[in-house]
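ok, trying the design again with the full structure, not the truncated one.
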């Protein structure tokens, strides 16, 4: 497909624009209506024909709402499911939702295409036995940069301590910035040590005079617009703008990074769990999952779908990192409300400084 500038899947569109021309975001009314599947997903996180294709194949109508952050998703469900059938939390939030009793167990027997998944994604620490979640896409957090202005970064120091590009750097408002700082300092992103979390926050605060902005996942837009030369961002978001501007690059620093997985879950109180299982099964059809991957530029957990995507994507280390990058990457775990509050307080302190 020709390059198209797509907004980040993790960004809310203030003016209320939808996923794509083929999908309309409808109000949350009459959610229990028979023949309707209600989805709550990140923005721009399906291909243009994904939802119309499911509607044609199932005879169901889809109502599609967007959330901008895992915190928004969690808060909405904690207040009582307003009628969603399928939701897309990230790995640590899937664990948090399950612990809070907000997810229904999945019936794997109703998802025939689950056999298309790679074995490594079927047994994960955050959801043993995949009782409550199944994988959608995965990726890394790294540095997006303009190659004509920046020598290929090898360390998170390019963002945190190097003066070379002061004023031309953006970080994320999310805890991913803390994770990167922890890795730079030699700590795990899953540390529960308050001193280590505080040290990461102190590093970010010390870097603030050199940071142009902390962006709510719009670093890729700042990068392609020429407003920054380096940004901390999700790999797929940078890959999307790399399709438009071949002067842009993406790298995972040598200290390692956070690796994430977005999942599909059925929340407690879903009005149409049968349709929810059918939708998950539909996503795992190789041609469906592959089409989404080509559009959004994130890595597949679907072995059969990977056989259908361009070889250039499979060989692209920004999408599918080599073993040495995987070895120094960590998946964030949910470690309970007490530890989560330490991370949230640290990030609040950074943004307020």
């Amino acid at each position: 497909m020709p390059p198209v500038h797509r907004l980040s899947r993790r960004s809310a569109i203030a003016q209320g624009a939808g996923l794509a021309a083929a999908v309309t975001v409808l109000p949350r009314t009459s959610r229990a209506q028979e023949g309707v599947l209600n989805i709550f997903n990140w923005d721009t996180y399906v291909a243009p024909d994904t939802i119309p294709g499911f509607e044609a194949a199932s005879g169901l109508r889809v109502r599609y709402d967007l959330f901008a952050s895992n915190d928004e998703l969690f808060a909405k469900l904690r207040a009582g499911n307003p009628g969603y059938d399928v939701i897309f939390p990230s790995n640590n939030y899937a664990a948090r939702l399950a612990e809070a009793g907000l997810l229904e167990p999945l019936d794997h027997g109703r998802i025939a295409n689950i056999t298309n998944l790679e074995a490594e994604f079927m047994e994960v620490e955050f959801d043993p036995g995949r009782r409550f979640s199944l994988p959608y896409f995965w990726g890394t957090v790294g540095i997006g940069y303009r190659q004509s202005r920046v020598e290929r970064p090898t360390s998170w120091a390019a963002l945190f301590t190097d003066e070379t590009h002061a004023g031309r750097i953006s970080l994320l408002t999310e805890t991913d910035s803390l994770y990167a700082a922890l890795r730079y300092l030699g700590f795990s992103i899953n540390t529960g040590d308050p001193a280590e979390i505080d040290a990461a926050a102190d590093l970010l605060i010390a870097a603030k005079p050199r940071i142009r902005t902390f962006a709510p996942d719009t670093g890729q837009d700042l990068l392609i617009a020429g407003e920054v030369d380096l940004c901390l961002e999700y790999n797929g978001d940078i890959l999307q703008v790399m399709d438009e501007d071949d002067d842009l690059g993406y790298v995972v620093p040598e200290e390692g990074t956070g690796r994430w997985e977005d999942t599909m879950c059925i929340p407690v109180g879903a009005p149409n769990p049968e349709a929810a299982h059918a939708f998950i099964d539909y996503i795992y059809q190789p041609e469906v999952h592959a089409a989404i991957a080509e559009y959004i530029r994130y890595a597949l957990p679907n072995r059969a779908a990977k056989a259908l995507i361009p070889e250039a994507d499979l060989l692209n280390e920004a999408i599918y990192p080599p073993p040495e990058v995987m070895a120094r990457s960590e998946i964030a775990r949910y470690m309970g409300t007490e530890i989560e509050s330490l991370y949230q307080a640290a990030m609040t302190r950074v943004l307020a400084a």
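Keeping the full-length input from now on. The CA atoms of residues 111 and 277 lie 6 Å apart.
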